[in-house]
Amino acid sequence: MGVSTSSPDKGIALVTVDFPPVNALPVQGWYDLADALRAAGRDPEIRCVVLAAEGRGFNAGVDIKEMQRDTGHTALVGANRGCYEAFAAVYECEVPVVAAVNGFCLGGGIGLVGNADAIVASEDATFGLPELDRGALGAATHLARLVPQHLMRALYYTSRTATAAELHAHGSVWRVVPRAELRAAALELAAEIAKKDGYLIRLAKAAINGIDPVDVRRSYRFEQGFTFEANLSGVADRVRDTFGKGESA
């Protein structure tokens, strides 16, 4: 349980997330993930990182129950900062990051895959931001990297999800495979990347980030300000308390 790192093949680091039952990460989990990604990127022997998850789905976002147990804003601030660091660690990893997405990829999961360099998904994978149903905001920055602008807005406002096949049609998912083949397909892409010169692939990652039209760190941080405003106003607690109860705000 937690975040682990292994090296299944030469030049590849596999960072695996495992927080049962649904990979909704607690505050410390986001920081642990950030640390693992940064450490893998710093390793001179690594030329590509695969980010994967065990269990029913890739990521269900933050641990809502952890926030509900907190009578103040400590958990909220911790989750904001932890997500910020984890998303940035994917984007700023010194080598390319391939996300292997199975099942649901929601909330914070979008922040991770939206900042990844490539995505391989299983046929049952779904992607979305149910933030408005959870009393939160954020990660529209990253959803906008996966789908066109108007679709991003419609998905965000409705809390609907998109399938792996739909994202593949938009060009943001590299390959869609049966779930049993997901890990192998992601490692296959990583192995192709890892064949490149280690120094050159790092220069390529830095160069591509440098020409990005959107500063993802600043853009996401701007969104987080509205998340905190929603909490200060009380509307976040009101909506969040209905989460999992089949009620609407």
Automatic annotation (TrEMBL):
Sorted UniProt keywords: Lipid metabolism, Lyase
Gene3D superfamilies: 2-enoyl-CoA Hydratase, Chain A, domain 1
Homology family: Belongs to the enoyl-CoA hydratase/isomerase family.
Protein's name in the database: Enoyl-CoA hydratase family protein
Organism: Streptomyces virginiae (Streptomyces cinnamonensis)
